[in-house]
Amino acid sequence: MMKTKLSVLDLVAVGEGYTAKQAIENSVKLAQKVESLGYERYWFAEHHNSASIASSATTILIGRIAENTEKIRVGSGGIMLPNHKPLIVAEQFGTLETMYPDRIDLGVGRAPGTDGVTAQALGRNPFAPPSEFPDQIDEVLTYLGENLGAEVHAFPGENTNVPVYILGSSLYSAELAAQLGLPYAFASHFAPNYLEQALQIYHQRFQPSQYLAEPYTIACVNGMAADTDEEAEKMVTSLYQYFLGIVKGKPSKLKPPVDSMKDIWTMDERSAVMASMRYTFIGGPEKVEKQMKAFVEMTKVDEIMITSHIYDPEARQKSYEIIMSAFNK
């Protein structure tokens, strides 16, 4: 695991009894903590129309974190590109890169990050062909590069060469990232089924580009670490309840942990939740170390990105501390 990097994905989950402002401030404190621990990057995911998630204005959060940290890379995991005009994305991330040089990442995806009605409210075309996504990526890359001879330019943005990452949870995204010669991040924290196959396709079909000479892979997983296995098993019940709300079509704010889920979900609901959480590190230091080692040996990823739906902000910080300590062993 010595060559593998550790990073953070933050959805800015809003817990019961907390406000969105408090959730954002907790993210600032977490970013400062993980920077001191040696994490590589801190990404935000774009979501809309969810009272339980405060990461809808992703670029604003990136600026807030970059302003309150010194060296950790900060970016999007990701910007849902069909929700935005490529020129605007290039201008926003070009501005961030200008303000915080060599620290900004642009991860892009094609999912709506919300429900169908909200996607249309964002101006998304429900009948757009899949081919629009690679065209949008190419447009963003052009605006962020030299863009010679063009009538339209991104200022700031041009020649900033903000690194672009392809995000996905399918084989399509793996093929596209390989074809474009861009780094690839897989969302195995909620869509684990195609992880191994997607990574294999990406490596087999990767074409070197001006952006990347060799394949580079990131896998996002859930991480819940505590001093003991028992503490971690209780802590993860907040995540179970969060996923259960999604399964039932009734998402809610992040709930406090409970002693038992027995009376909260049915066996079928439990199966659905656990299927989405196949790649979740849960336990004390020794157990988490074994889980991470096995994951790296299986996937050979260059980077593991940890996301943690932990109700107590201090417990979340401690979880990332335990994970890094276990990782360094």
Automatic annotation (TrEMBL):
GO cellular component, one term: cytosol
Segments forming domain Luciferase-like: 5-298
Superkingdom in the source lineage: Bacteria
UniProt keyword Oxidoreductase, yes or no: yes
Name of one Pfam family that matches: Bac_luciferase
SUPFAM superfamilies listed in its UniProt record: Bacterial luciferase-like (SSF51679)
Transmembrane helix recorded as keyword: no
MF annotations from Gene Ontology: limonene 1,2-monooxygenase [NAD(P)H) activity
Keywords from the named record: Monooxygenase, Oxidoreductase
Major enzyme class: oxidoreductase
InterPro entries (UniProt xref): Bact_Lucif_Oxidored, CmoO-like, Luciferase-like_dom, Luciferase-like_sf
UniProt EC number: 1.14.13.107
Similarity comment: family membership: To bacterial alkanal monooxygenase alpha and beta chains.
Protein name as annotated: Limonene 1,2-monooxygenase
Origin organism lineage: Bacteria, Bacillati, Bacillota, Bacilli, Bacillales
Name of the coding gene: limB
